[in-house]
Records
---
Amino acid sequence: MTDCPHCPWCPTQPDTPEYLLLYCPRHHSHCVALLHSLSALQPQRSTLTDLLGSSTNPNLVFKSLNLTKTFLQKPNQLHHI
């Protein structure tokens, strides 16, 4: 996140990890791919907590975090958060 309270691409939206990972239209195609991959691991709709590895299953946490890392590297957003 930056010092600005708004998303750099969506000036009316908050600049939060949740918005970037799940809702920002700039990253929609990457988000769809991430959520599709996560749905194979856990059938319910993923939340920010899921993307950050909230499970008590270490294998699921590892896979979720790797998928989230890949998402952040694709649009080159790792530095933004």
---
Amino acid sequence: MNKQAYKQRLEALLLDLYRKKAEQKATTERFQIEGFMEAGLLSEVVSNADLQELIDNTHFKVFGISYNARNLSDREWIDIPAYIREKVIKPI
């Protein structure tokens, strides 16, 4: 898989996740996305910076604001993975 195909697939996964309503638990999708991101990093298809840019852009497409501007109380519907909490990349 090349970098462009990888980014397109990850964006599609993120869009599906972000469009779910807060009351809908997205556990399966979240784990799939985390694994997909980790695979991209390990195979060196993308960097942390690539992932962060894609997450930020996709978040903006769905919510119309940056992640940082969005109310953090919306996090109750998604658990934040440890590698993200440790500031490797911002939450999805």
---
Amino acid sequence: MLDLDRGFQYKPPTMQSNDYIHLTNFGETRVAQGSTYSRVSIELRVTRPIINAIVKNVLPILLITVGEDLPTVEYLTLLDTLYPYAYVDGIAVMALLIYITKLGHEDATHMAASVKADRWGGGLSLGVYLMASGLVIALALLVRPD
């Protein structure tokens, strides 16, 4: 395993060539449905130690969030309240993408599970984010000082 600067670890690439039956004729009327084509899969695995990812991505956000010596500016208060919801939603979407990638796409069953997880997870994430943001905005409007 090669460890380069910036903390990324590159594992040896792999390449596979196999036949794959596509369930379409790609618009070609002279070809029957389900033709077999060659497919090359190239895998480039890049990993990053979890400590590096936390220190470089999460720690600065926590430091900004915890910083109490910053002056209070009233017109940024609502936006500052919405930012953590956006961060949590972004992290949830990334986790969903990682999960879907780990499901694999080798056959129709795995592909169907990936599509189902994508639709449900994406819809749920968007719905929760919109409801939470709407609730924060509604509460801000209701308790707004005149």
---
Amino acid sequence: MSSTQFNAGETHGKTQQAQVPLAGENALPRYDEYAYELILKTTALNIDGNSTNREMCAFTYLRMNPDLFHPDNWRRFVAFVKKMKEGKDVHRCWEQVEREAEHFVHVTQPFVQEATVALRH
């Protein structure tokens, strides 16, 4: 269990006691599948392998910068968003989700180019 998962589990316990919803955000600018998978597990509060009736109410993705819009990073990010939308079904392989998300990657290409230029200025 990573320290991130431990902190989320500990925080989740406290929010349950206080009867308030739990939201989260990413802390580091990482664009790899392992980092996205960790976010998926943490937001599902799948800390101990049992996430029944538990999940964060919201998640904010921080660190939008030109690196995010690199073609490979953007493809993984689009797949990550797709997996977040699907909820707790995190068992599908990344390659399959990326293939399904390829249409959105292609459609958003003009936006990606515009965002990259805007973020560099």
